[in-house]
Amino acid sequence: MEEKKTQTVCPYAKKCGGCQYQGVPYSAQLKKKQNQVQGLLKKFGNVKPVIGMKDPYFYRNKVHAVFDRDRKGNIISGIYEAGTHRVVSIEQCLIEDKKSQEIIRTIRGMLKSFKIKTYDEDTGYGLLRHVLVRRGFSTGEVMVVLVVASPIFPSKNNFVKALRKVHPEISTVVLNINDKNTSMVLGEREIVLYGKGFIRDTLCGKSFRISPKSFYQVNSVQTEILYGKAVEFAGLTGKEKVIDAYCGIGTIGLVASGKAREVVGVELNKDAVRDARINARENKVVNISFRQGDAGEFMEAMAEAGEKADVVFMDPPRSGSSEKFLNSVIKLSPKKIVYISCNPETLARDLNFLTRKNYIVKEIQPVEMFCFTDHTEVVTWLEQK
After folding, report:
1. Binding residue numbers for S-adenosyl-L-methionine
2. Do 249 and 275 form a contact (C-beta atoms < 8 A)?
3. Which residues are catalytic?
4. Mean pLDDT of 23-44
5. pLDDT, tens digit, for every residue of 106-136?
6. What is each CA distance from 259 to 236, 285, 332, 346, 361, in whole angstroms?
7. In which residues is S-adenosyl-L-methionine bound (predicted)?
8. Binding-site residues, please?
9. Of 382, 379, 347, 344, which is closest to residue 364 (Cα–Cα)?
């Protein structure tokens, strides 16, 4: 029964291109991912079976819609067709949170009566560019971000009131001003129209503040499994000094803090560092500190000062780590490295480097984070030889 259900083919699959495995039974998707990870990583060690999802639908806690008009002038919302700036009109996406999608449909229906024009990329006319909805799956808190080309939003208070009448679950509404001709979704300026300008969610027993620009894993259910594995691999006993490189809003470091002596999170993005410090305070975690800056340079400075770290958690972007960064890890010489990767190909490249430098791979665990797409998250445990 379950297998049949998973073969529901999304009507937008061909045009949208966001899901590469639409129409493929879920068990077959997991098999493909397992084979891909194994093909790339088995030379380093045993690849455990991928941890799949019980229910692989409607899992994305962050939903982004772009607004436009069709040839007849009707307002449409959806996503850009893969590799283009053509908007594919989408009524329902099978992997995005249902409630967030309802809110986007409501906003689309309100634009006409509020005389709000959608932004035209070619002419630069119009106001509403995108809508971003983020939902805390464990708290139920909802953030709506209206991305506009100019700060002047007609009858904004009435607009928010009308929207919240239909969706009282909305906790905060933020106006984000993006007046640049750019493919970036969010601009620099923000005006909070309702609520606090952020939401909270709970993950692995810790509470996190999520702002419009915060990086937060899109699959809450599987993130708990992923971070649980990462902390398990670190084998913390309460005596270790831990570095959380690329720490973002402090998620992994805060989750690990209960089992470590001391955690230092390092992150380049200053907004993320501010959120991380607030998260530590709100969770009453006192054995963690955050530094704004380059994690590689920070570890090199530690090594030069003769300081030690027992465990380094690293969770780099899709492009993986730079050789410069990996060299700084080698200099610091932690007993264990726990590498969380969202791209098995760059992970293979980086493991090649680390295993030539006195580290061996103990375990490789793929975790399904992006059902119906060809992306797989992998957590790898390395130890000094």
Report:
1. 217, 246, 267, 315
2. yes
3. 342
4. 96
5. 999 999 999 999 998 888 899 999 999 999 9
6. 6, 12, 21, 29, 22
7. 217, 246, 267, 315
8. 217, 246, 267, 315
9. 379
